[in-house]
Amino acid sequence: MSRVILSILLFFWFTYYASAQKPGRLLISYMRSPDIFKAELLHARNQGNLKMEMIIQVIQVQDLVDQKQYTEAEAIGLGLLNRLSECTGCSSFVWRGVAVIDVFDYMGQLYTELGNYRKAEYFLKEAEARKIKSALWTTGRLRNTRLQAKFYLQTEDWKNALLYLKKLYRGIRAGLEPGDELLDSYNQYYRGMLLVALNTGELDYAKKYLSRAQDVFMTNSNGIITASKARFWDPELRYLTALYFVADNKPEQALNVLEGLYDADAYRVKIHAYYKLSKLDQAIKYAELLLSSNLRQVKEQFPKLTENEQEAFSKKLEADLDTYLTLAIQSSGNGSSIAFDKLLEYRLVTKGIRLNLLRKVQ
Question: What are phi and psi of 93, to 5 degrees?
Fold first, then answer.
């Protein structure tokens, strides 16, 4: 009954606020083209309107981060921060829900996604301190709380993740979240709490938050999606659902949920599911697929990654290799075949990456 009530409430929240989106969001939609950004920026400069010039740059940084154009976003963001440090009073600039100091949030988001966690934490904490100090913290903008929760989830700091997820929930319940971001915030809260519960061994809580996450997803899909149609869920929700089933010793259900997904995260869960089913051959098969997927990423994407992203990725490579070796050793007595050529190639690649990173550090 409570699930039905939650779905109805979320649906009406979404419907009521759909026509009241933040002007900042509408402005981003209008200015999505780089040419329009340039034209609006030039117009503000020609008018001598410093406030609008800086606001437009904040929106530009947000848009570029959302599009994962990190190099350009970083250059504009750092330039804006430099101007902000030299401008007395500019920190108070606000226009239709967009604040100049929001740039600290977006820089924190940028560095979180790049894996540069030291810089990410600095900018997110700076944004939090500035917003608490000013009246901007009470304008209904919980972005900083959401971003810090995401940061701590990504860095697997479950204690702080829980702290900021609870702050996010209190802000939502207090009505501080604008309507166009409400469902996104509920979505992040329930999925984040599910991940924390799974990693702290709280299986009963994990089941509760999985149920809530499914409710929010169905509400966001206007009722088209039902819980019995898992193949229509977004990949993240399917991945989290499968993680729960593995933790709950229901590996077959986990595999059903992941049917049709062929990314690295899905492979990792499938490996654990087949291992729990004592199907070592299948577990090794997906471990080899995971190694092949990692090798493709190294060849196609690794050179384009930042130094921090390369280091984070190399740690995943090592962990996946350890998983494969563990499975190979356990199955060696069963006559299972091991792809030694692939294993050798993988080991050479990971060692090469490590040596390259060490040279950069020195």
Answer: -65, 125
